[in-house]
TrEMBL record:
Belongs to the peptidase S1 family. CLIP subfamily. InterPro entries: Peptidase_S1_PA, Peptidase_S1_PA_chymotrypsin, Peptidase_S1A, Ser/Thr_Proteases_Immune/Dev, Trypsin_dom. This is AGAP006676-PA-like protein. GO terms for molecular function: serine-type endopeptidase activity. It comes from the Eukaryota. GO terms for cellular component: extracellular region. Keywords: Disulfide bond, Glycoprotein, Immunity, Innate immunity, Secreted, Signal. Residues 1-18 form the signal peptide.
């Protein structure tokens, strides 16, 4: 009887380890107006093929996203103020077709570097409690590491490997880790100082979240975007490995030169 009891405990432990809770990877459901800067992007590669990304509103006229999200595409539908990216009838959401993309000139997919892009909206986006730009870092934060700060990523990506994209906006929180820790977590990837990484042990963005904003609450209490989600381990978003984001403080000059965003010198 004792051996049977021990076997049962082992079976429960193995089962729990083998089937990780996808709700952790998928994060929590967002509420209306909770992340007014988050933008859904349904990108059109050709007449038949579409894909999905996320981005952030950084002014009434510009969206910030990943280079991989706009490279080679013809157009995209940007969704503002909505929770359901594929629901064209969602009340209060604004859907705009965008075609003006500014890809960083040094963007490369192998390795994933300079993974940042801007999208110009055809008209200024009406601002409200549901739609509001996010703040970017200031010039004094260019050398800041944001180490150990709690960061939030939002998007409509998958719950885990082999699952479908989320129908509703979700968010997950995790700590910023050092560049060294990130390199140890992802030894086969190129991790540069122009990246900022988050711990993937408990929460991680996934496929479908590319371009999503990574934010912190800054020392003055204002939400500030420090990253754009770029890539994860080839082992997937449930592997517990670090998630890698393009570090926004490394691209402030480029953003300022290619958009109407005024880069601040201080808080």
């Amino acid at each position: 009887m004792k051996s049977l009891f021990v076997f049962a405990l082992l079976l429960v432990a193995v089962t729990a380890y083998a089937t990780p809770d996808r709700r952790v990877v998928g994060g929590e459901l967002a509420t209306v107006g909770q992340f007014p800067y988050t933008v859904g992007l349904i990108t059109r590669i050709n007449i038949l093929l579409t894909s999905q990304c996320a981005g952030s509103l950084i002014s009434e006229n510009f969206i910030l996203t990943g280079g991989r999200c706009v490279s080679g595409i013809q157009s995209a539908v940007a969704v503002f103020g909505g929770l359901r990216i594929n629901d064209a009838s969602e009340p209060g959401a604004l859907r705009v077709t965008v075609t003006d993309f500014i890809l960083h000139p040094n963007y490369e997919t192998e390795p994933d570097i300079f993974d940042v892009a801007l999208i110009r909206t055809p008209l200024p986006v009406p601002l409200s409690d549901r739609v509001r730009p996010v703040r970017l870092p200031n010039r004094r934060q260019v050398t800041g590491s944001f180490l150990n700060q709690q960061a939030t990523v939002t998007g409509w990506g998958r719950f885990g490997q082999g699952t479908a994209n989320s129908e509703e906006l979700r968010f997950a929180r995790s700590q910023v880790i050092s560049t060294l820790a990130c390199r140890l977590s992802l030894p086969t990837n190129t991790i540069l100082d122009e990246h900022v990484c988050t711990d993937g042990a408990n929460n991680s963005p996934c496929q479908g979240d590319f371009g999503a904003p990574l934010t912190i609450v800054d020392v003055d209490g204002v939400t500030t975007q420090i990253g754009v989600f770029s890539f994860i381990s080839i082992l997937g978003c449930e592997s517990g490995r670090a998630a890698v984001h393009t570090r926004m403080s490394s691209y402030l000059d480029w953003i300022g030169q290619n958009s109407d965003v005024v880069i601040r010198d201080d808080f």
